[in-house]
Amino acid sequence: MSEFVRNIRLWFAPEQVRQEGGTPDYRFSLANERTFLAWLRTALALIGGGFAVDQFLPDLRWAWRVGLALALLGAGVLCSLRAVNHWVRCERAMRRGEDLPASRFPPLLSLVVAVVAVAMVVVVLFRGEG
Amino acid sequence: MNRADRDPGLQPERTRLAWRRTTLSAAVAAVLAVKTALHDGSATGIAVCALCCALWLGFLRVAHLRIRTLASASPPPALAPRHASAAVLCAVSMAVCAAVLVV
């Protein structure tokens, strides 16, 4: 947990990241930045999905509609926070010459998306009317 | 000196396009927010909708600053954590706005 708090402090302190270790090849930093942006796009897509559930499934019961939308929005928030956290960790690992951090997040996110998708199919087909 | 000679991978260009794509995704989310707010029609809805548009403009500004830095310096410096956090903050605030509109 303290590691996580330290990472959060790094989000706002560029000089701290820059002082550690040596500067990696700029191409690696830019690749890391593009990965960060790809995750951010995923997060924005999930947020857009939350809006879309609310707007384009108006026949659903309120609880299902709001529940699915909030699940997607929550996944979007988690995904964007994790994006910046992972970016900082990768940047620091590259500066120190360590291995890049492993992550359980991608399978976790895909499971959440799969569960929401299945729930949406079930709700739209069978129970959501009225 | 031609940048293509120096960097066959065109890294700064690809990064610039990644920022553009991400801005476009943010624009899609903002447009969906506007649609939700107009559908809703309440004063809160309009306020949240304006906030979402402001957030998108904030994201556009971060992207623009970053793209300018990428174009001006060579080799381009790494992304400042402040800018990464600002971009993420825009996305998270948009999600909060969405939650307010949906509930």
Q: How large, in whole angstroms, is the Cα Rg of chain A? A: 19 Å
Order of helices and strands of chain A: HHHHH
- Molecular shape of chain A: elongated
Overall SS class of chain A: mainly alpha
Mean pLDDT, all residues of chain A: 86
User: Looking at the structure, what is the overall shape of chain B?
Assistant: elongated
Number of strands of chain B: 0
Number of helical segments of chain A? 5
| Rg over alpha carbons of chain B | 17 Å
Indicate the mean pLDDT of chain B: 88
Which H/E pattern describes the elements of chain B? HHHH
Number of domains of chain B: 1
* Secondary structure tally: strands of chain A: 0
Enumerate the spans of chain B where pLDDT stays under 50 for 5 or more consecutive residues.
none
Given helix and strand content, the structural type of chain B is: mainly alpha
- N- to C-terminal separation of chain A? 45 Å
Strand content of chain A: under 5%
Biggest sheet descriptor of chain A: none
In terms of topology, how is this protein built?
The complex is a heterodimer of chains A (130) and B (103).
Chain A: H1 2-11, H2 14-19, H3 26-56, H4 62-96, H5 105-127
Chain B: H1 3-6, H2 11-40, H3 43-72, H4 81-102
Helix pairs in contact in B: 2-3, 2-4, 3-4
Please give a quick description of this structure:
Chain A: It is found in: Cell membrane. With about 130 residues, chain A is an all-alpha fold.
What does this structure look like?
The complex is a heterodimer of chains A (130) and B (103). By secondary structure, chain A is an all-alpha fold. Chain A has one domain (31-127). In chain A, 81% of the residues lie in helices and 0% in strands. Chain A has helices at residues 2-11, 14-19, 26-56, 62-96, 105-127. The longest helix of chain A is centred in the middle third of the chain and has 35 residues, at 62-96. The radius of gyration of chain A is 19 Å and the shape is elongated. The termini of chain A are far apart. In chain A, 32% of the residues are buried. The mean pLDDT of chain A is 86. Chain B is mostly helical. Chain B has one domain (8-102). Chain B is built from four helices and no strands. In chain B, helix 2 (11-40) packs antiparallel against helix 3, helix 2 (11-40) runs parallel beside helix 4 and helix 3 runs antiparallel to helix 4 (81-102). The longest helix of chain B has 30 residues, at 11-40. The radius of gyration of chain B is 17 Å and the shape is elongated. The model of chain B has no long low-confidence stretch (mean pLDDT 88). Classes of the chains: A mainly alpha (130), B mainly alpha (103). Chain A binds chain B through residues 10-14, 17-18, 23, 26-27, 29-31, 33-34, 36-38, 40-41, 43-45, 47-48, 50-52, 54-55, 65-66, 69-70, 73-74, 76-77, 80-81, 83-84, 87-88, 91, and chain B through 7, 9, 11-12, 14-15, 18-19, 21-22, 25-26, 28-29, 32-33, 35-36, 39, 75-82, 84-85, 87-88, 91-92, 94-96, 98-99, 101-103. Chain A: Residues 27-92 form the DUF202 domain. Chain A: InterPro entries: DUF202 (IPR003807), IM_YidH-like (IPR052053). Chain A: It is a multi-pass membrane protein. Chain A: It is found in: Cell membrane. Chain A: One of its GO terms (cellular component) is plasma membrane.
